Predict the structure.
Amino acid sequence: LTSDHVNFQIQECIDMLSEANEHVSMERLESMLLQKYQVRYFRALNLRENRIDMMPAAKDHDMKIGKVNAYIHNFIWSRSSCTLYELKECCREFHTEKKDFEHLKLGPLQKMPLIYDLFKFPMDEYIPEITSVDLIECLHQ
């Protein structure tokens, strides 16, 4: 078993969780990887890297989660009103080709724990295309 092989498997787990529309947390990622190798602890893989967050694919993914969470906090705090749809559209900035949030392979935006904490939006619902302007117009009617 090599570090390169395990790193490839980590990326495979990220892809599988993302394609299944699951939130791709580090905990979920590690759990799936350990199940694949049928071990209880990452150290049992006997690699030079003794923690999953030392593996390049996992480290990159963890950094991406951190950046997106920081962006979400700043987005919310810098706007007096915003919608989840607007946040999702602005998160395109994280993808090199400005593609949908799903291309970041973090899972659906509404399944991120931070989103639930801030918006209380149901994790299994589709994000409606509603903007702040739509809300203001609705209030004026």
About this structure: The two ends are 65 Å apart (CA to CA). Helices lie at 3-19, 26-37, 56-78, 84-90, 113-119, 132-140. The mean pLDDT is 91. The chain has one domain: 3-140.
